[in-house]
């Protein structure tokens, strides 16, 4: 499957209130329909997992700055420690004197795995722009390939049978493909109505369909 960077919330992800800049957890809680603690954890997990899996870090020493190149050996050591669970994200931010830049993320979607699935997930999706000066890297141990792809190209590849995606990833790419540039997406995320999507199954003869209504 082709997936976005991401992963599960860690126990320490909600404990970064003193290393936070941007819209407060209450803003994300209202948008995502959850508690403030859970919203903070969702945002922190999104930033942490993006750093772990691509080397991109949405954080900076002040609210007006973002860290630059994170490809150095010291950054890589911290990334590996975070990925292995040997370093908590809050401790990482404190030690480096960084603020999580919540203003650089936009909540986009909220999906819950259908009830019939044996393994289920409650997943929030966010959008963000690649900070100037940072480089993505093929560093994650959780995939065999890493690539940049325009959303419209990803959708076309799935439709042609060249890629496989789970429905939430596909739908997010299809929605994003209607925007011509990255700069238009973050404002759209601010205005977007987010509803929790819990698909159900409709059986029609020998065929089964997922429905999101």
Quick summary:
The protein is α/β, with parallel strands linked by helices. The chain has helices at about 25-30, 35-55, 75-85, 90-95, 150-160, 165-175, 185-190; strands at about 20, 60, 100, 105-110, 120-130, 195, 200-205, 205-210. The relative contact order is 0.16.
Walk me through what this model shows.
This protein is of the alpha/beta class. The chain has a single domain (11-211), classed as Alpha-Beta Complex (Nucleoside Triphosphate Pyrophosphohydrolase), CATH 3.90.79.10. It has helices at residues 25-32, 36-54, 73-83, 89-96, 151-159, 167-176, 185-191, and strands at residues 20-21, 59-60, 99-101, 105-112, 122-128, 196-197, 200-204, 207-211. The longest helix has 19 residues, at 36-54. The chain starts with 19 loop residues before the first strand and ends with a strand.
């Amino acid at each position: 499957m082709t997936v976005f960077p991401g992963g599960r919330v860690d126990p320490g992800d909600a404990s970064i209130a003193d290393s936070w800049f941007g819209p407060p957890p209450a803003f994300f809680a209202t948008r995502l329909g959850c508690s403030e603690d859970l919203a903070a954890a969702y945002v922190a997990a999104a930033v942490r997992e993006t750093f772990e899996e691509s080397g991109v870090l949405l954080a900076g020493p002040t609210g007006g700055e973002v860290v630059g190149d994170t490809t150095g050996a010291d950054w890589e050591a911290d990334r590996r420690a975070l990925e292995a669970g040997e370093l908590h994200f809050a401790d990482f931010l404190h030690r480096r004197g960084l603020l999580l830049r919540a203003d650089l993320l936009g909540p986009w979607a909220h999906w819950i795995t259908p009830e019939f699935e044996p393994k289920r997930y409650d997943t929030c999706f966010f959008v963000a722009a690649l900070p100037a000066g940072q480089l993505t890297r093929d560093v994650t141990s959780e995939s065999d390939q890493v690539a940049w792809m325009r959303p419209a190209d990803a959708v076309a590849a799935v439709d042609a049978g060249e890629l496989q995606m789970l429905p939430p990833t596909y739908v997010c790419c299809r929605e994003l493909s209607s925007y011509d540039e990255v700069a238009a997406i973050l404002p759209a995320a601010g205005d977007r109505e987010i509803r929790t999507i819990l698909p159900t199954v409709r059986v029609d003869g020998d065929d089964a369909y997922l429905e999101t209504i």
